[in-house]
Design brief:
mainly beta, Tumour Suppressor Smad4, six-stranded antiparallel β-sheet, 1 helix, 13 strands, about 0% helix
Length: about 170
């Protein structure tokens, strides 16, 4: 089991993102917390080991991120070049790589498998997977199953769920 550092949800071993909140679970800078006693506060800093210190996730290995405009939550995109986005539904045999369920995806009209974002060299491509309520880039509806190149700062709407694409080194 992998415990999410963001919401403390127990996730299945091997999960890359939290099933509850969508936060990244794996990476070189995974957040770990430890119980410490007050005696450890008396140690000089130079004697504390690196394992005893807080190691926050800084997203340095991410090639981009999705900034949910309604909540301010940031979902990093790393370790892979392609991610499916959608929401989890009970009994659904195929799961999206990025589950948007914790962000009111059902109410916003996000389909179970709504869209794909992928990195192809220097290009970032977005594809609507034939979603019921459509995908919009900067207000323009995408044609289903047709690749659309997107840029840093573009606003994508999956149904009514809006997110901004932030690309590292754009």
């Amino acid at each position: 089991m992998i415990i999410c550092s963001n919401c403390k949800h127990s996730n299945m071993a091997g999960a890359m993102f939290c099933a509850e909140c969508g936060a990244q679970l794996v990476g070189k800078d995974t957040l770990t917390t430890q119980n410490i006693s007050t005696q450890q506060f008396d140690q000089p800093v130079e004697h504390a080991s690196k394992d005893d210190m807080y190691q926050p996730f800084d997203g340095s290995d991410a090639w981009g991120s999705l900034h949910l405009l309604d909540t301010g939550q940031v979902l990093p995109l790393s370790n892979r070049n392609e991610f499916t986005m959608g929401r989890v539904s009970e009994g659904q045999p195929i799961m999206p790589d990025i589950d948007l369920s914790p962000y009111q995806a059902y109410a916003a009209g996000v389909s179970r498998l709504h869209a794909v974002i992928k990195r192809d060299g220097a290009r970032i491509i977005f594809i609507d997977l034939g979603s019921a309520n459509g995908t919009y880039i900067n207000g323009k509806r995408l044609v289903p199953n047709v690749e659309q190149v997107i840029s840093h700062g573009d606003v994508v709407a999956l149904g009514k769920l809006k997110l901004q694409v932030l690309i590292k080194n754009a």
